[in-house]
Write a structure and sequence with these properties.
Strand content: 25-35%
Strand order of the largest sheet: 8-9-10-14-13-12-11
Largest sheet: 7 strands, antiparallel
Number of strands: 31
Distance between the termini: 43 Å
Structural class: alpha+beta
């Protein structure tokens, strides 16, 4: 987390606290979390040098937080939060938190802010033994600051603190006893912090006090503002000085090339303004076993649908976060990789990368941008997905970077049996909507390499065509008059059976069968529909079609029409209305097999043929149709 030293003491005025403060919810500005008491004590001292009302609390689980407050009203706390973030006095991922997450107080020494407040019944942490919102390594989570219930831990004494700090290489300056807590009083209007202007010499002196992280942040902010193109190295050489002068001139300052404290605060305020309202805060999900920062200002916990903890949008910004957690091995990981790519929240266009340790999925379309990272370690598969609206790249990239930097595994993995009634549907996977095509039809293999014949209507106006939902195919040829189209998969396939077209004349009233995905892919195998051959021409004498008597469904169009011996005598065509006339349900038409053979040969496909004869048992015909018929989807 960036920490910026600013030569200024901000006056934060405590809000009024009535005599019944113990019964009221109170709020803090959470600015930092550390994994050791010594580190937290060092941080609290630094913040206390430039801010009033700085507190240190135990957060549980070996974490210690630094917070400013308390405030009796969330709106007032958020007002101060905005002022401090714009001025650069606190890290950009600071946030307002209720006091419920705080335990014992270790700073100021001897003080103990009253944190008693009722637990929010709507808090998603009710399902876990510990609060679900807690700070992560770098930044503490938003916390409400009412008084914490008494625990078995006792407040740290000055001797305790001295012992904890003895490990630091540089001993901290002697502690000063804090001033007595102010008497309850009415809260005055908050005054915006004022940073005194500096001369170039004073600016250079205050700049010299900046640590490496603060200097890096200034270069990052200058780069974001479009003035700096060099490396982020914390070295203020000629390139950085020129970029500082450029920023100064663009913002109405004298272009000295040395930013004053006020100018540094203004620059960082511009840089951090993009995160206003995001509410970046650490979330501890005990059930998923994941800690990370999330934009809790725009998403909130919805429900668990294994392997996901789903956080949906809480505002009009259509953002979504998934925490991914499940036990498993490499096979499970590979299965999840394939399943994730069927979801609506993972657009087709984007980077796909997978190895034995995990995978990365990105995707973008006109509506959303999606980013998924998943890793396998010690038999646990964990990761996250961020879904963000398109055309908001600046905020999305900043939010994603904070999520990536703060992501951490903790013990625990989501129970695979964790599901809800809302998540159970044929068009849902773990409560998430599966990406659905514009239309589905049928087709069948006509060559050993995987070439497929289908209806021309089935692949009209498609951005993408898939075979069996998994294999992308290209439309390589069409014949509008015959009503057929030829598909070639992008990767070579090895079908179990390919069509053998019937030669010779078929007998009228002979039995035929159509194989197709009648229900648009709801069933995983094709359905056979039986009927009879009524005529070798169309109703108006069309020579390229045969008339059938059978009850086909729209999803069957493009499927093979078999004779009794299993030879393919044609392809079922979609039903059409002729001049507004609706034909009887039993009337259907098939493109003639001999004309299909000519079409295939003209396009470089050598299809098989055989003399019709014999009668195939229904179960054998079903097996043949299953091996040959495919689902063709238009996306």
């Amino acid at each position: 987390m960036p920490r910026h030293l600013i030569s200024l003491v901000f006056a934060l005025v405590l809000l009024g606290q009535g005599v019944h403060a113990q019964q009221e919810e109170r709020f803090f500005i959470q600015v930092e979390a550390r994994t050791s008491l010594a580190g937290a004590q060092s941080s609290v001292r630094q913040f206390s040098q430039r801010l009033n009302n700085v507190n240190g609390f135990s957060l549980g689980g070996g974490w210690y937080g630094v917070a400013v407050g308390p405030y009796a009203d969330r709106n007032e706390a958020e007002a101060f939060l905005g002022e401090l973030m714009r001025s650069g006095a606190i890290p950009p991922d600071s946030y307002v938190e209720t006091s419920r997450v705080y335990g014992r107080q270790f700073w100021p020494v001897g003080a103990q802010v009253d944190l008693d407040a009722p637990q929010d019944a709507q808090d998603t942490t009710a399902e876990a033994p510990q609060p679900e919102v807690q700070p992560s390594q770098d930044d503490a989570a938003p916390t409400d600051t009412a008084q914490a219930p008494a625990t078995e831990e006792q407040p740290l004494t000055a001797d305790d603190l001295a012992a904890a700090l003895a490990e630091e290489e540089q001993p901290a300056p002697a502690e000063q006893q804090p001033a007595p807590a102010p008497e309850p009083q009415a809260a005055p209007e908050p005054a915006a912090p004022a940073i005194p202007e500096e001369t170039p010499r004073e600016a250079r002196a205050s700049e010299a006090e900046l640590d490496r992280e603060a200097r890096d942040m200034l270069q990052i902010a200058l780069q974001w503002a479009g003035f700096y193109e060099g490396r982020i190295d914390g070295a203020f050489g000629p390139g950085t000085r020129r970029s500082m002068a450029g920023w100064q001139e663009a913002n109405g300052y004298e272009p000295t090339g040395i930013l004053t404290s006020r100018q540094r605060a203004a620059l960082l305020g511009q840089y951090n303004a993009v995160l206003d309202g995001m509410g970046m805060a650490d979330r501890v999900d005990q059930r998923a076993g994941i800690v990370m920062q999330m934009p809790l200002g725009v998403v909130e916990f919805d429900r668990y649908e294994a392997p996901f903890a789903i956080y949906g949008s809480r505002t009009d910004l259509p953002a979504q976060v998934l925490l991914i957690s499940q036990p498993g091995d490499r096979d499970t990981l590979n299965g999840l990789y394939e399943i994730m790519q069927t979801l609506e929240i993972v657009p087709v266009e984007g980077e796909r990368r997978r190895d034995n340790a995990g995978f990365l999925l990105t995707g973008a379309n006109s509506r959303i941008v999606s980013h998924t990272e998943v890793g396998l370690r010690d038999g646990e598969i964990k990761g996250f997905t961020l879904v963000w609206p398109a055309n908001d790249e600046e905020r999305r990239s900043r939010v994603l970077a904070l999520m990536q930097d703060s992501y951490q595994r903790i013990p625990g993995v989501l129970d695979p049996a964790t599901v809800s009634d809302d998540g159970q549907s044929v068009d849902l996977v773990s409560g998430l909507k599966v990406r659905t095509p514009k239309g589905n039809g049928s087709g069948f293999f006509v060559a050993p390499g995987g070439a497929v014949l289908t209806s021309a209507d089935a692949v009209a106006q498609c951005e993408r065509v898939t075979i069996n939902g998994s294999y992308t195919a290209q439309v390589v040829a069409r014949d509008a008059s015959l009503g057929v189209a030829l598909l070639r998969p992008e990767e070579t396939l090895a079908p179990r059976r390919v069509a053998q077209f019937a030669t010779g004349t078929q007998r009228l009233q002979s039995e035929v069968a159509v194989a197709g995905f009648s229900f648009g892919g709801v069933l995983t195998a094709p359905t056979l529909t039986f009927g009879t051959l009524e005529d070798t021409r169309g109703l108006s004498g069309e020579p390229q079609v045969k008339r059938l008597a059978l009850s086909a469904m729209p999803g069957d169009a493009g499927g093979p029409v078999f004779d009794a011996g299993g030879s393919v005598m044609g392809m079922l065509l979609p039903r059409e209305t002729d001049g507004g006339r609706q034909l009887p349900d039993q009337v259907n038409f098939a493109a003639k097999g001999e004309m299909i053979l000519d079409f295939l040969r003209a396009n470089g496909v050598t299809a098989g043929s055989q003399v019709s004869g014999g009668i195939m048992e229904p179960e054998d015909l079903t097996a043949l149709a299953t091996d040959m018929t495919v689902l063709v989807s238009c996306w």
